[in-house]
Amino acid sequence: RAVYARLVTRYKSTTNDELQRAIARRLEQDRLSEDPHIRFLAVDAMGKIGAHVFDASLVASTEDDSPAVRGAAERALAGGHPTRAFA
Question: Fewest CB atoms less than 10 Å from the CB: which of 45, 66, 75, 85?
Fold first, then answer.
C-alpha cells in the first residue's frame, strides 16, 4: 500500500512528463496483475491521481472479476471528470 501512496505523491508533485509516464505505465501494468489485491491498489492509485488521466483503464476496471477493484474504479469515475462511458 505504501508503494502506491508514494507513486501517487510522486505523480502529483512532479512536472516531469517522463516520470509521470513511467508511473502511469507501472499502474497500467499492475492493473492487469493476476493478484486482485495488486489490481485494487493500482486502480485505487489511478483514482487518486485522477480519472481524467486514466479514464479508459478505470472504465475497463469496472468489469474486473474482483468486487473491490470494480468498486474502486466506480468510485474514481464517480468523483472524476466525465468520461466517454459515463458522459
Answer: 85
